[in-house]
Amino acid sequence: KDEMDRITLIHGDFRTMKEALNRLGITKVDGVMMDLGVSSPQFDDPSRGFSYRYDARLDMRMDQSQSKDAWQVVNTYSEQELTRILHTYGEERYASSIARMIVKERAEHPVDTTLQLVDIIRRALPAREVNRKGHPAKKTFQALRIEVNGELEALQQGLSEAADLLALHGRLAVITFQSLEDRIVKDYFRDLTSVPYVAPKLPIPESEIEQASFALVTRKPVTADEEELNENHRAHSAKLRAIERTKEAEK
Q: Apex CA 183: angle with CA 180 and CA 185, to 5°?
């Protein structure tokens, strides 16, 4: 039997998975796998505007049916908003300098393409930063992509939806590719697998002590081994974390 007969593709976002599955009559699942970030085909298609290595219109939309794109963010957001985005989502030390240079440049003409933006970033950074290992535009492009696609909000809501959907002994596994995502997943999993502290000397029967509904499957994140890295260099920053439902959801 064709494998595709067993697959149902749904055009949607992590944050709507419960609603989308409910429409198909599915209220519980045995597993959820969330593979975050941009896919390689999106990165490798120059016309999508995700990469700072190809010249293309500033786009960066994962879902091309949405209206907000990177052009809109770069050309209409205030200097203050741009600084906040670059600092928060890109962890960019020179966020204010880059934002100031973008605003100055767009006053002359719109910033239309990826390489125009790369040139602005290079001019906004000190020479020592431009010459450091790694591309000088990497953090800015990450920040814009996250803003355009609402990635962190989608992740937080998606984690909650996925956990609610899990049947007993069902597992939720998440692959992250940068520190902001990994921190959200790590903190959420810690909260789900923890219970309020009870002093050991309190006279409470063990049966009455609250138990967590989930348990960690991975104490530490799983990362790619050397063999996988040789085949797929983009896996170098990937971290896999997983939890399992150990207690029935309360009605």
A: 110
